[in-house]
Amino acid sequence: MREASKKILLRFKWLRSLRARLFVIIFLIGFIPSAIMRYATIASYEDRGIDVRRSDVQNQLKIIADHLIKYNYLLDSSSEIVNAELNQMANLYDGRILVINGALRVIKDTYNLIEGKSIVSEQVIRGLRGANLSNYDQANRYIEIVTPIIETVSALNASPEIPEGTEIIHGVILTSVSSDSINTTREILARKSAIVETILFFLLIAIAIIGANILVIPFDRVTRAISQVKEGLFDEPITVTDYTETEHILDAFNQLLKRMKVIDDSRNEFVSNVSHELKTPITSMKVLADSLITQNDVPVEIYHEFLVDIAAEIEREDKIINDLLTLVKMDKSAALLNIGIVDINALTEIVLKRLRPIARKKDIELVLESTREVIAVADEVKISLILTNLIENAIKYNKEQGTVTVTINADHQFFTIEVKDTGNGIPEDTVDRIFERFYRVDKSHSREIAGTGLGLAITKNAVMLHMGTINVASTLGEGTIFTVKIPLNYITK
Ligand code: ADP
Predict the structure, then answer these.
(1) In this predicted structure, what is the pLDDT of residue 335?
(2) What is the number of the ligand 1 atom nearest to the C-alpha of 451?
(3) Of 143, 301, 351, 404, which one has the fewest beta carbons inside 10 Å?
(4) Most confident of 92-106, 155-169, 432-446
């Protein structure tokens, strides 16, 4: 059904226009009832005309039939009065009257053609049995009426054999009257209504064009409003309240606009952050280099000290660039995960081993708690990235002599990595922002702790690529727990 309507729409492209559809609907709503009315009026006029004529003629024929009996016309057809009556009636209705007696002989023919002849027809015979018949011959346009000539026996003529009130049929009057005048009126009526209908046809076309155009105006307004947004004329939400439908369309559009604005803003912010973060080490290097250049006879120790600082800035710049590259690569190659079998426990141990020297500097204890062996189908490099970033942060933002506890667990569907530290925690109002690119909780304080603000953004990306979740729970002064939950078997989208 849908296929068929699709095909029709493809074939008649103009039907896809709302304006065209409205035009057709308005036109048909006006035209169909008027056409039906016209047909019904004309048809019922004809029926009614024929009925009226038939009953008129039948009534008059009954009177004439009484006169035929009264003047004994069937035995002697010379009665001037009756003949005049018959001829007058025939003229009046533009018809022919035959008076037929019980022996089927024609006593009178107003056309004077078959007088004295016999006539045998089913209608006449039925008439002789007392039936009042009539038949309308539409093709030849005449009404045929059979009226029995009935004598009701009066008290005077009654006898024992024929009691009073007996009805005796002496013959029939066979009449055919023309329906021409009815048909002529009908034709005049049809012609006039055809003219009215033609006028109505053009009027309806005009009304349908105007109506359809008025009804689609709000949609034109929607298009115009959207075009203005496209041309950058407005930033504000747009509204066209004429229809609930246009309101819905624009609600959805405004939401899209809002979302695009958020994306645009965050892209701008990201670009300005990147520039700022990349510029900072360069500015420091320039300051250090300039101070060496502008001073004479700088001792070698100072040179050495400044060069060490410059090397540290280069390292920082390098780290920012590497983090950015990791992030961009991850955005681009979401579908290019290197999925394989990963022993999560073994991988965590490797990462911990690598980070132990850094932990030792702050005298921090690294603890691994794993209740079971966890083997997952995942991207090993990305999981290692997640572990490294979380454990590195737990060390960096920990107190001296603190502890970092990494717990590995799994159920039948997911494995979890929990990294818990005994650091200062994250303020509640900033917890939601720590996954943003370049976001660092306390910028001035964080300066002392090396970092780019990209680590958690990278971690979150890696978790998302595995269709996992990452949550953080932190208590100021007590510590922070990061929990990562990832499906044991990598699910492709
Ligand atoms: P970076 O560590 O390079 O600054 P991250 O994206 O890894 O960047 O972290 C963002 C911020 O979140 C950090 O600057 C820090 O303020 C906060 N943070 C991350 N991990 C912890 C943690 N374990 N304890 C306290 N604060 C943390």
Answers:
(1) 57
(2) 3
(3) 301
(4) 92-106
pLDDT tens sequence across 396-449: 999 999 999 999 999 999 999 999 999 989 999 899 899 988 888 875 555 567
Distance 320 CA to ligand 1 centre (A): 15
Q: What is the pLDDT of residues 272-287, one digit of tens each?
A: 878 888 888 899 899 9
% of the chain residues with pLDDT over 70: 96
Closest residue to atom 8 of ligand 1, CA basis? 453
Ligand 1 centroid, distance to 440 Cα (angstroms): 6
Residue by residue, what is the 3-state secondary structure of the chain? CHHHHHHHHHHCHHHHCHHHHHHHHHHHHHHHHHHHHHHHHHHHHHHHHHHHHHHHHHHHHHHHHHHHHHCCCCCCCCCHHHHHHHHHHHHHCCEEEEEEECCCEEEEECCCCCCCCECCCHHHHHHHCCCCEEEEECCCCEEEEEEEEEEECCCCCCCCCCCCCCEEEEEEEEEEEECHHHHHHHHHHHHHHHHHHHHHHHHHHHHHHHHHHHHHHHHHHHHHHHHHHHCCCCCCCCCCCCCHHHHHHHHHHHHHHHHHHHHHHHHHHHHHHHHHHHHHHHHHHHHHHHHHHHCCCCCHHHHHHHHHHHHHHHHHHHHHHHHHHHHHHHHHCCCCCCEEEEEHHHHHHHHHHHHHHHHHHCCCEEEEEECCCCEEEEEHHHHHHHHHHHHHHHHHCCCCCCEEEEEEEECCCEEEEEEEECCCCCCHHHHHHCCCCCCCCCHHHHCCCCCCCCHHHHHHHHHHHCCCEEEEEEECCCEEEEEEEEECECCCC
